[in-house]
Protein: Helix-turn-helix transcriptional regulator
Amino acid sequence: MPARPLLPERVDQVLSRSRARAERRGALGDGLELVQWANAHDRTAYLQPGHHTLSVYLEGGWQTELLGQPGAHGSPGCHCLLPAEHESQWLIGSPQRFVHLYWSGSAWADRVVQLLDAEPRGMSLQTRIFAQDAALAGWAHAVTALDWADPLQRLRAQELSHAALDRLLLQAATPAQRGAALRPRGGLASATRRQLLAYVEAHLAGPSEALSLARLAGLAHLSEFHFARMFRVAMGCSVQQWIAQRRLRRAQELLRHGRMGLAEIALQCGYASPSHLSHSLKRALGITPSQYRRQVQA
Structure:
């Protein structure tokens, strides 16, 4: 029986039919998705998947090679960049773990327009195999340390992944384009900023979806990518950092002025649990909630 011809297929679909195992997935919005994989003793082939892929090795990779490129192997921290039109075949040996970031062509085009004010068709991605970039290795380490099911940590994963794509885009840009993109510009209109900050304060204790990047960007009538950049310009920090700061400030106020129990304070401030609140306060101030309360009420 003749071999079945290869057909264009998403990278995650190819891996799902192979020996690879998806350890977890996280939809980030704006056409971005994270998947953490494990694989061993396998053979895979990609044929014009129709989306872009950033792959970073977390563990292993020493016995993984690209057919047609003998002698080159993966290793922890190195990355591969596979554009939408990419074609390749791979041999996987010993166990390895890796994280994939997928993004659509429309997400890339929007980024080119927003960040560089350039024509998307003139800004293509180039294939990279077993490349080294400390910043992208750091992205993989940071993003896989997060719980993608937790709304606030997923928001952080979004911000980190947007920054990784910004890096890839700036590496593909001309020096003049990079210089223009790195100069701060824009921000949020005063009325929009006031509306957003008031909304955050009013929803700290609400359902997690109320403070998602998609919801906040919708209030500002911007894409998630553009909103995240404009918020940082306006406020000097990321959306996730601002929400974390406001939750901590409210918890401090309740500890300082009331007799509310720790569980109720955690609930009022949007923390997942009292231990989550305790961990956040200790990381910020170096003391536990009970120690803080004793100090400020003494």
Remarks:
- The first helix runs from residue 11 to 16.
- Confidence is low (pLDDT under 50) at residues 1-5.
- The chain has three domains: 11-148, 184-236, 242-297.
